[in-house]
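# nightly structure sweep
# worker-07 picked up a monomer target from the shared queue
# config: single-sequence mode, recycle default, output format = structure tokens
# input follows
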Amino acid sequence: MCVSVCFLKATETSEMAETALTEQRCIAVALLLLTVAGCATQKGVGLPEFDDWNSRRDALSSVSEWEFHGRIGVSAGDEGFNGKLRWWQHDDVFVASVSGPLGVGTVKIQGDERQVAVTDEDGEVTEMQDAEAELYRRYGWTIPVTSLRYWALGIPDPSSPAKTAFNGEGQLARLEQRNWVVQIDAYREGGGQQMPRRMVATQRDTKVRLVIDNWIFH
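# output follows
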């Protein structure tokens, strides 16, 4: 009897903990959406000076709140799309809005490093544990969701090993990580410093082209 009661209590505790974590993630996403709405008219703040690659990597790794607006093109075999991309980041939580996939409306991708949810043009929400694989199965294309927040900043994802190469200005030019190859061939001003402008990420038959038109740091 005690074993059954203890098991039920342990199960209830586990379910309560999982519910609490889910609620915390939902609150974090909601706060980010409120921040996005409140920052819509702000010009942002400047980044510190980058003396070398180490200072660049460390400074950009510590930036907790930023966004960019740009354009994205994805091709994977016979599938793909071109559209607009808006990305908002607050600590580990991100919200990405991709407009124009497959000639339809806007797809919203939001989440953190543990879980990602995709809301399609019909408002249907799908939670994904392995976002890259599940995006490919669902749409026939994928994007490097979990690492793009780092690669877009021009730094490696600190969660996995990487091979890097640099241009003459000491900026990241090529990156091999998580079976992706990333080429950054242009930089532009963002937050008072040179930030990635144009990049291409490839993995097997998938190619993701990203052009960043505007950076904002908060």
